[in-house]
Amino acid sequence: MQRDSLKAWRASSHFTGANAPYIEELYEAYLDDPGSVSEEWHSIFAELPTNGVEADVAHTKIRDYFRETALDSNRSKKTTVDPELSEKQVRVLQMINAYRFRGHQAAKLDPLGLWDREPVAELDPSHHGLTDEDLGREFNTGSYAYGGETMKLSDLVGSLAKTYCGHIGAEYMHITNTDEKRWIQQRLETVLAQPRYDAEHKQRILAGLNAAEGLEKYLGAKFPGAKRFSLEGGDAMIPMMRELIYRSGEQGAKEVVIGMAHRGRLNMLVNVLGKKPGDLFDEFAGKHDEALGSGDVKYHQGFSSDFATPGGNVHLALAFNPSHLEIVAPVVMGSVRARMDRRNCETGKLVMPITIHGDSAIAGQGVVQETLNMSQTRGFHVGGAIRVVINNQVGFTTSNPRDTRSTEYCTDIAKMLQAPVFHVNADDPEAVALVAQIAVDYRYEFGRDVFIDLICYRRHGHNEADEPNATQPLMYQKIKKHPTPRKIYADRLIEQGVMSSEEVTEQINTYREQLDHGDCVVPEWRTMSEHSVDWSPYLGHDWDADWEHKEPLEELKRLGREIAEVPPSHKLQSRVAKIYKDREAMAAGDKPLDWGMAETLAYATLLEKQYRVRITGQDSGRGTFFHRHAVLHNQDNATTYMPLRHLKEDQGPIEIHDSVLSEAAVLAFEYGYATAEPSGLTMWEAQFGDFANGAQVVIDQFLSSGEQKWGRLCGLTMLLPHGYEGQGPEHSSARLERFLQLCANHNMQVCIPTTPAQVYHMIRRQTLRPMRRPLVVMSPKSLLRHPLAVSDLEELAHGTYQNVIGEVDELDPKGVNRVVFCSGKVYFDLLDKRRREGLTNVALVRVEQLYPFPAEEMSKVLEDYQHVTDFVWCQEEPQNQGAWYCSQHHFWQAIPSGANLSYAGREASAAPAVGYPSVHNKQQQALVNAALNLN
């Protein structure tokens, strides 16, 4: 077709309303594969102007144009149109889309005006072939939400610039959901991204800025040089946080959980959560309670309070956070999920998370990606989170954005979730307030994450003793001359006649007087109500607290039958069917219990008593080693069935979720869950024990030390498969030595159960005992199906967890001249070898709890061996690993005076295990022989 013919053809009835859907489908097909449409249509679509805009950009607006055409009742009556005007109409729609896609790149986002950004050609009408003569013409505006169906081009360009190139830069066109994009367009375009607040609202915003600046200046004068990680430059965070909380209350939230690192934390504590300034000043002065453990620095502390909003009081919880920055984000999500579950809220509408990030940290810390990746999964979703970046354009100490990320924005990671990002100039607090309101509303409308990039600056160095001019001379020359956000906005309100200069000064003086008095400065602060978690039943208890609640034998048999029952219509895989057939026999007492059955029975007894059970891990439903099978997959239709959910109507809830392939974020999530839900069992299972290496920050900074630093109790259970099976360095050791190194002050338990009865009692003890501290379990692999690692129902009904298990064979204690201490799988290797060799002079003592060390129980077990002088600790791990270095002092104290303690195990090694099965077997045989004195 020639060009003139094309123009005439476009003007024909083929573009009338009835044909618009058909044309859209053809154009979709053309974009996917140009060869999929006829030559005639290929020529038409190829002639459509793109002017450098990506194909999908053009398609979006052309599609809108087709739809507008379809709605035009007069269009079908026309037989001819102006071809040039028709083509320019398409170009106008492309320009509108260009602003939506790239307007943020021309927005005035940097308060300091230092950004040097390339002009965006697509925002210039001339780039789209539109001339000065066209500025006075009326064009259809498609889906553009401002104005009417048509606008003069000059008015359209002006409104687009105000909406997308002002103090708010909106990135949302990467979202594929049309409803979400349309929703954002309606919120921004109808008001030109410029809110209209009344005088009272504006005064409230200024009060927030005044409080933010006032506290920092007060601290700077009262405690010069002290670290406080000042918020100055990012002062708008305080009124923004207040807007977020107000809006969440209006949306029905009952709780808001906040996670943030250092910068601005003290300001948040005082000016949002309502911590008394006097208490903060005492901390600066070095006053503290000696009985509160080790304590922590001021800018790691958490806080809780209630905050009055128009929709009712909202409970606020600021999570405690170490210096490991972003690791608090999944902790917050776990806390939120626990609060949702407690309120029976599946959507997240009653509990809202807010995480506050630094610009370098959000781009640099991998746990951010891990947390975002979990956000829409079944076991970890919380209904969306508000993620705020305090973007001071420096990052941490001396960084340059070019050195801290490879992306245009630090928030580009949001695009992996198709989450909208609202970049906003922190010197425009009204724009910040508008973005905060939109963010909350979006979260409640769509249940998804949303990002706010609060672009500001840092008035001082990384901390107040740092000198930023050394590395950012130009920026800090500009900052010294730049008025504060409070000053800019106060002058603006005075100019508008909203406040007088005297009223502004009075506001400043009133706040300072409040600081002088040291009492709460947050007018919305309220005494905490029943929203907070009740930890009182778990305080003040020691390890030996009474917890015994035995289940009768007949009750165990009944539960055993129920957890082995599967609907006939639910077809099981053959190996799984065999496991469940065996469980029926175990429940009847016809077969000894294996590990999976005893473990499942423990969960069933807790659920019967209405305790909540939550288990997560990469293979938790099935079990990494094919032993648990709590979640059964129908082989016909892939539906799932969980017998543990069908014990009785009023049982406790149970969640078993296969997690994402992450350790750090998932373990942090479960830690957060356990700190907000003390009454049930929260358990995380590693695929292999040493995979917990990837979550070491959670273990070091939260699990082992959270109680000492912050007084935070946590009853999380970690199952870490551990045992030397010849599978190589990365599948043998759960790094037992690292946990034992961290043990002090009775901060956690480290157990190595060796029988099904032991795991049954251990799980129940962790839940029923009125004490909440982490439980670290070196869980088995081969013992899951070991012929000697079995128990009977009587052991479950009448037994208890044994921290130490003495000799089980009928040896004459008087004939024993060597006692071997051991833990875990190696016990069965020793037992098997001793029996095969017919040895009667070596006794085997299992230590099933390495910490807290059971000195009293050990003393009782050793009463019959006070004549023995030869004691051995046997372990599978290399000498520099395992329990030998960390626990031998306990064994020295336990053995008789004058006796000797020696080591039997692998030699010291840099790697946890060898990679060759033949070498492994040789080493294993050697250490067993050494322990039994067979060398």
Automatic annotation (TrEMBL):
Pfam family, one: E1_dh
GO cellular component, one term: oxoglutarate dehydrogenase complex
GO BP: any one term: tricarboxylic acid cycle
Molecular function GO labels: oxoglutarate dehydrogenase (succinyl-transferring) activity; thiamine pyrophosphate binding
Keywords: Oxidoreductase, Thiamine pyrophosphate
Start and end residues of each Transketolase-like pyrimidine-binding domain: 593-786
Cofactor(s) named in the record: thiamine diphosphate
EC class of the enzyme, as a word: oxidoreductase
Span of the signal peptide: none
PANTHER family registered for this protein in UniProt: 2-OXOADIPATE DEHYDROGENASE COMPLEX COMPONENT E1 (PTHR23152:SF4), 2-OXOGLUTARATE DEHYDROGENASE (PTHR23152)
Similarity section: Belongs to the alpha-ketoglutarate dehydrogenase family.
The protein's name in its UniProt record: 2-oxoglutarate dehydrogenase E1 component
Source organism of this protein record: Ferrimonas marina
